[in-house]
Backbone:
């Protein structure tokens, strides 16, 4: 074969490879459909005093108040929307009213639901901090937990709990009685409906359930009847992590706004990503660092009815507030 022919074949292969790479990029790395959000303010530093944190891990906003899981301090702190401290409740322990590494939060019916990682339970408080009841106990049976990471509550009072080490999502009645589960107890999997250390759950206005499938680096969605609908995060959502648009590097928090947009805490990518209800990538914001508008592991996210976004900035021991750039 003549050298010129070899050169032509080589060039052809290079062109084909380039086209394949470009096609793959377009298929698996979507472009943003919205402008990024803009940093507004931040508050907090490491410590145990009011307004200080030691590993903030969960956040929820309701009625003009920001509730934060101050994990290592074993308490919940409450602020106004500008970060002014209002009150706190809880202390380390396992009795009623005490907390063992509180994680992701939700509020329903004027009650705060706290997933307790160390105490293997969900504890319910009044919004003033009054302890109400405990749901669940340690174990792998129905209605039992092994390090729950997040909880959501349906309009009928049913609970959906991300049962971290049990590799499942449980649905329970308000009294803690078992309804059903997704995933096989204690078994890791990457197929649809299987989990790899699920960390959080969120319910959309239409009853759709979103699961932060933590170490599978993806989100899974189930309809209001519990049937699997879709999954996303990297190529084929098959436990492939990365820093690109629509990819994740450990998912630790998920929430849904009133328009059914999905906000995801992308922990090791130090950012928040936003998607439509149909998993279309919309935008992302945040970079790694300690400065304003940067994160040291964004672990949890909450959205207000008027579009303000609050993020628990785990490694920087602070809360950040962002607004959409209109």
Residues:
């Amino acid at each position: 074969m003549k050298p010129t022919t070899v050169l032509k074949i080589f060039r052809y292969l290079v062109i084909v490879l380039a086209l394949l790479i470009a096609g793959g990029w377009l298929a698996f790395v979507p472009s943003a459909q919205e402008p990024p959000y803009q940093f507004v303010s931040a508050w907090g530093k490491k410590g145990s005093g009011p307004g200080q944190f030691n590993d903030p891990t969960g956040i929820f906003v309701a009625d003009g108040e920001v509730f934060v899981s101050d994990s290592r301090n074993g308490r919940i702190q409450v602020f106004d929307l500008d970060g002014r401290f209002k009150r706190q409740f809880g202390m380390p322990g396992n009795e009623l009213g005490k907390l063992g590494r509180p994680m992701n939060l939700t509020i329903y019916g004027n009650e705060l639901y706290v997933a307790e990682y160390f105490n293997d339970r969900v504890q319910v408080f009044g919004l003033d901090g009054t302890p109400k009841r405990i749901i669940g106990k340690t174990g792998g049976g129905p209605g039992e937990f092994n390090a729950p990471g997040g909880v959501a509550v349906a309009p009928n009072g049913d609970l959906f709990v991300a049962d971290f080490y049990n590799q499942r999502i449980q649905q329970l009645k308000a009294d803690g009685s078992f309804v059903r589960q997704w995933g096989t107890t204690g078994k890791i999997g990457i197929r649809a409906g299987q989990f790899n250390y699920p960390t959080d759950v969120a319910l959309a206005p239409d009853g759709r359930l979103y699961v932060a499938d933590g170490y599978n680096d993806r989100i899974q969605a189930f309809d209001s009847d519990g049937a699997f609908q879709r999954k996303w995060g990297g190529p084929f959502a098959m436990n492939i992590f990365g820093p690109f648009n629509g990819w994740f590097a450990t998912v630790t928090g998920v929430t849904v706004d009133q328009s059914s947009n999905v906000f995801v805490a992308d922990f090791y990518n130090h950012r928040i990503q936003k998607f439509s209800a149909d998993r279309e990538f919309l935008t992302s914001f945040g970079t790694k660092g300690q400065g304003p508008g940067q994160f040291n592991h964004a672990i949890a996210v909450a959205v207000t009815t008027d579009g303000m976004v609050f993020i628990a900035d785990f490694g920087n021991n602070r809360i950040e507030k962002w607004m959409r750039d209109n």
Summary: The chain is about 10% helix and 40% strand. The CA atoms of residues 198 and 213 lie 4 Å apart.
